[in-house]
Write a structure and sequence with these properties.
Bound molecules: arginine, zinc ion
Structural class: alpha+beta
Largest sheet: 8 strands, mixed
Helix content: 25-40%
Distance between the termini: 20 Å
CATH class of the largest domain: Mainly Beta
Radius of gyration: 23 Å
Number of domains: 2
């Protein structure tokens, strides 16, 4: 097997950063108010790192532990934006810890316990630092409960787009990519730490709260309705949602009895769901192409909020700020395989999400008698060097260009160019093998290059260097 040196080296670097776990104790931390490591057996342990080492979002996620499950109990009143939450987080320490962090922005934290005992905590920007009474041993399982409340706002990401818990006139539009989960719950906010989720969402009677997975309970009492949603499959925090609005829930079934739960805003006209009409067929088509559908259910959330102005592939239940077209629906569905099940190990790898989902959109259009993927490639390729989508390079777009046109378009073109280079047989085998080998996991481009070389038995360094890492319009590849 041929390993691309440059990309291979980048992988080594990533692995080192991402496996940092607990940071070496900085000298200053020892004298810090909360760190005494009192009680406990053996050494006091060291503080967990305040980030996982993502080059684009250094504060995202934390080191020293691995979350297994989030239980989120939230009460939200859209009229006043009053929000009260209790997060119950089960985790396992991956290092001996005197202290660890969660990411949380805004809110007043009222109480924190670790394994049922009050724990000291303080806050520093988006870091909630928690010191359990005794150091946690490496490998130990523990449960953190954080009680917090406040009033929600309309947060924006590094590019200025609304994201996270976005308060809307009728509820909330909750779309966290890339690091917005911390705007509504304490979290290890990085895709490298997937977990299962339970949501108990309490909203004024008449409102509907929609999260990931399946609705397992609903009851109204004293003018409030609690919706209980369960998402059993491992999920990255950027894919979690708890959207509140004037939704009608519509149930149907997909291929092989897959439960489909759509939430459609009642204020939209009957054509709001038109773009979803072929969802079942799309699931069948992508299952044939990529492998079995990754999760326990599916569905869409169609809001009437045009402010955010985008869609997100929230796991099992993509969000659309308004009625989506069929292409967008295909795009968000394809993300369930590429992005949600097979996730980026760092945000630099965003083209592995967007290039794949965009290319899937092309494949769906060709499959349904529209333009061929080749025709779409040719149309884009005919555009001059000055066209915006040639830059920045999709393999390293920078934190403020995660959703640049090049990540989508040049990313999809990269896959089409690869297809023509290695042939349909190898290309579609590669798409399947990529999913099969990395389900519920995280990946880098170096992993993809390596697999592409294995499957095709070709040397592809120069090819990927040209398409993913070189600015401008490729001339030869
Ligand atoms: N991943 C989404 C999609 O391709 C786009 C999310 C945009 N998010 C943002 N914060 N600007 O459908
Ligand atoms: Zn996308």
């Amino acid at each position: 097997m041929v390993i691309c040196r440059r990309v291979g080296a980048a992988l080594v670097a990533t692995t080192v950063t991402l496996s940092l776990g607990a940071a070496p104790a900085p000298a200053s931390a020892t004298g810090h108010g909360h760190d005494h490591g009192h009680g406990g057996v053996g050494t006091p342990g060291t503080p967990g790192a305040p980030g996982v080492g993502d080059g684009y979002f250094p504060a995202a996620g934390n080191g020293g532990y691995d979350v297994l499950h989030y239980g989120l109990d939230i009460r939200y009143e859209p009229a006043t934006r009053a929000f009260a939450g209790t997060a119950t987080i089960s985790a396992r320490a991956t290092a001996r810890l005197s202290r660890f962090n969660l990411d949380l922005r805004g809110f007043d934290v009222r109480a924190v316990t670790v394994d049922g005992r009050a724990a000291r905590y303080d806050r520093d920007g988006q870091e909630l630092r928690i010191s359990p009474r005794h150091a946690l041993s490496r490998g130990e399982r523990f449960t953190v409960v954080v009680r917090y409340d406040g009033t929600t706002g309309r947060p924006t990401d590094v590019e200025g787009a609304l994201y996270g818990w976005v308060s809307t006139p009728d509820g909330s539009f909750v779309a966290n990519e890339p690091d917005g989960a911390s705007t509504w719950y304490p979290v290890n906010d990085h895709p490298t730490d997937k977990a299962s989720y339970d949501f108990r969402l309490t909203v004024p009677a008449g409102k509907t709260a929609v999260a990931n997975g399946e609705l397992v309970g609903q009851r109204t009492r004293d003018g409030w309705t609690t919706f209980v949603w369960r998402a059993r499959d491992p999920m990255a925090s950027y894919l979690s949602t708890a959207s509140v609005g004037d939704y009608d829930l519509r149930r149907s079934t997909g291929p092989r009895g897959l439960p489909i739960i759509d939430a459609i805003d009642r204020d939209l006209g009957p054509e709001a769901a038109d773009g979803l009409a072929r969802t079942r067929e799309m699931i069948a088509y992508f299952t044939d192409l990529f492998g079995r559908y990754p999760f326990t259910s599916y569905g869409a959330i169609v809001d009437d909020d045009e402010d955010a102005g985008y869609a997100l592939e929230t796991q099992t239940r993509p969000m659309y700020s308004g009625p989506p077209g069929e292409g967008t629906v295909a795009h968000e569905l394809a993300h369930q395989w590429y992005g949600n099940s097979v996730s980026p190990a760092r945000w630099q790898e965003i083209w592995l999400n967007e290039g794949f989902a965009s290319y899937a959109e092309w494949l769906w259009e060709e499959h349904t008698g529209g333009r061929t993927a080749q025709a779409r490639f040719d149309t884009f390729y005919a555009r001059p060097e000055t066209a915006s989508f040639w830059n920045p390079p999709p393999g390293d777009p920078g934190a403020t260009n995660l959703f640049a046109g090049s990540v989508y378009t040049k990313g999809a073109m990269t896959l089409h160019a690869l297809r023509t280079k290695i042939g349909d047989r190898a290309f579609f085998a590669l798409l399947r093998a990529w999913y099969a080998a990395n389900r519920n996991d995280t990946v880098t481009t170096a992993d993809f290059v390596r697999l592409a070389e294995q499957v095709s038995r070709r040397q592809l360094d120069a090819f990927f260097q040209t398409w993913l890492y070189t600015p401008g319009k490729p001339a030869v590849w």
